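Case study.
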Amino acid sequence: MTDTATIRQRGRRLTQAAVVLLCGWVLGPIYLLVLNAFSAPDAVTGFPKRWLPGFDLHSLRMFVEFQGVAEALWNSVLVATLTMILSIALGAPAGYALSRFDFRGKTAFRVLVLMTRAFPLPLLALPLAVMFIRVGLDDTPLGLALVHTTLALPFAVLITFSLFSGLPVELEEAAWTLGCNRAQAFRKVILPLVLPGIAASAIFAFVISWNEVFAASVLTVQHRTLTAFLLTSLDVSPLPLKFAGGFVLVLPALIFIFAVRKYLFAMWGIANR
Amino acid sequence: MFSRRIAPLVMGVATVLAASVAQADVLFWSTQAKPIEETQAMRTNVLKGFDGKVDYQANDGGPWLTRLQAELKAGKGSIDVLGGLHGDFSTLPEGLTDLSALDLGGAKVNPGFMALGKLGTGEQKYIPWMQATYIMVANKKALPYLPAGADINALTYDQLIAWAKTLDEKTGGPKMGLPAGPKGLLHRFLQGYLYPSFTHSMVTKFESPEAVTAWTKLKELWTYTNPASTNYAFMQEPLLTGAVWVAFDHTARLADALNKKPDDFVAFPAPAGPDGRGFMPVIAGLAIPKTAPDMAKAKALIKYMLQPSTQVATLKATNFFPVIDVTLPADMPASVRASGAAIAKMSGAKDALPALLPMGLGQLGGQFNQVYIDSFQRIVLNGQPIKQVLSDEANTLRAIMKKADAPCWAPDAPSKGACPVE
Amino acid sequence: MPSRGLPYLLLMPAAIFLAVFFLYPFTLVAWEAFSGADGGLTLAHFATMAGNWKFSSALENTLLLAIAVVPIQTAMALAMAVLVTKIQRGRDVVLYIFTIPLGISDLAAGLIWFAIFDQTGFLNSALHTLGVVKEPVIWLGYQNRWVIFLAVMLAEIWRATAIMLVILVAGLGLIPKEYSEAAEVFGAGPWQRFRRVTLPLLRPSLQTALILRTILAFEVFAVVYALGGNNLPILMGQTFHWQFDLQDYHVAAALAMVILGISIGFTLVLLRVLRVPKGAGI
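After joint prediction, the assembly is written out as follows.
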């Protein structure tokens, strides 16, 4: 018994060490971004670098005061939200169908879904823009969200597919025998269990839309998203501004992930704790 | 729970629909003044004097062109005025309005530049907007290492090589820098500086023995050049960090160094070779796409952009110089004073040899540049034999010139029909 | 089960959506890859593409990068997912930290890692401060292509492992703890439990994570561009180059078709190797 106890303890220590190490690996580079964003221009270009920020807000202020940032931020949020809703609304039913039924064209559909992700979007931007200008979707958040949804849809379809596949059909069938119809069984039994998958799909949709530059710069003019507004100019701006801008762009995405993180864990049921 | 979630969505959709109704600003779709501070300066300093609101949008070449092409193809657009480099426009002359009859409000634009704006057609496709060129900048720490007897304002390529060599040996590593990164403008150095200086030509003598000498010299210079140069696009950055002490680049891409630390840097002319001091101007122009929603406002904006006071404000904002004759006020940024003096010395030098931007290449402009970039990468980076690379690339160049049917431009002698590659 | 039409009904919205917003523009672009000057079919654009002196190295680098990065990411994501479910306190904080790179665009990631490996960057600063080097080392010079490759690998692993992690964590949540406990009762060690219980049950999520990650790996661009410039040509970079710099839309479309072909090829292999039975699993 003492043997297993020491092994357990050692295992726990190992786990803790691994967690600390991995957190360091992830946070290290983030720290450098924050450090540079909060340092004076001289410190950013200087050598050797300092390891503590000077809390110089000069570069960051440039972005906050940039004319039109607030509006662009709002557009970004709007487009990302629409993308999230669209990709889940379209993707989750498809994922369910793929996991529960065998039917002709199943593989073809899966390949079609993946093709949208495997083809470089900037090449599609021209025909899409022509189409949007003709039908009046041009320069609207909805139009851009539709394009971003083609990028996010594969994630939504495949992730929900894999989650539904992981759920035993018996569970659903049990609910039917207990008097639920198919829709009720889905909503009361299945949905809560696949919430993590839907949360993951939502995160991907949001982040993909948030960070997409090319379609955003082509398809929005008066209603630019934050990335289209800032990022195109970022790679040619002086170094300190690059970091400050990078930080400004990263922050909202991090807040969003923070807000939905807990849905990534299955809430109850057959899952662990 | 669901109604709470859906409410914002409905509001969102409402804004979406509302959004497509309201607008009226003049949309200025540009590839220039992209760095965030320059965009800001364009909006707040340069365009605020215009009668009407201007929405200045600076983009990468890719989205800029894609959007423009989409509008032309759809036959309906929202772009009123285009701002871009000569090369940006040369690919789509048929989509641009003829501006020959445009009233410029008495502004006298350099006639040589006006001719470039015709893009090889009979119409005035773009109006020159601003100009720049390439110069050199050095950290003052590098000056003590200049070769004996060398005048920094009249350097030769041999002296530059000797200087770079001494720097490499005495300061612990190569300190010469060239903008050879993917977004760098090295091809203009090859076309407008190296080739004219050694061959008095840009196209015709592409594979001549003189060209072989030029590439040999460049290879030698490269051995004393910071190898991180293949990542550089804006030499102001490595100059500021101290990774590079001597650099060649576009005036606008050196400005930040000259402005942030005016006492640390000097600007000076590009070096000279046996055939003279080759140099090349860069022209940005203004055009109106045929699909512009408000032609009258667009024309008024171009006229406004060419007024002396706007041209001076543009210089302050972007480090691009006026295309009309204006006297500059005294309160110019350090970068303008320093690079202006260097340009004056370069163009006024006894051995000055101006080269023009490629003309009449149309859509092949990118492939024309690629010939020079490929030659550089093959000869200098990959160490392939010079003669063989040049004869390979000469074939490509010949095909491009034939396909475009473009006659020679300076410093090559005028040709009848396509410019020959000897 | 009833209603043979149900699956089609469920698929229809997504299918119609993709037909309008993807298949239609895609067909137009794909046509460019095969259409000649005379309007007929031709493979000339593929020949031009393959004849370019950078094509083979771009293809090689793209494949090598995917092969080097994806397996490491799979292993790391699995380890991280299992770790996260093992911790009792602060689990969601740890998961949050692990997923932070998700929110970082590839452009920003390229920027960060460039700041590390740049000549006057953080790596050299650290080495300099520790007295390991006297003069800053030029890490990303064109002569050390393998250093560039390594830097890109690190940056990609850092940036994109979270994509797999999130999918795996969501999948792990569905595996009943009782299975693992039962196995433990029968004397299975932790490694055995992972191999024999967790891994097979995780197969649907693992498959999804692998497919998505592999496809994204073939489209890698911004990070390579930031760290390697032109020194590490890759397919996506070449596609943009033909499209926007050289403005030869035919060749650009041909390159895009190559990327698509490779991605679909790998996807079909992964679909076969990690086949998920219908209504699977438990």
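Observations recorded in class. Residues 268-273 of chain A have pLDDT under 50 and may be disordered. Residues 2-59 of chain A form one domain. We will return to this complex in the next lecture.
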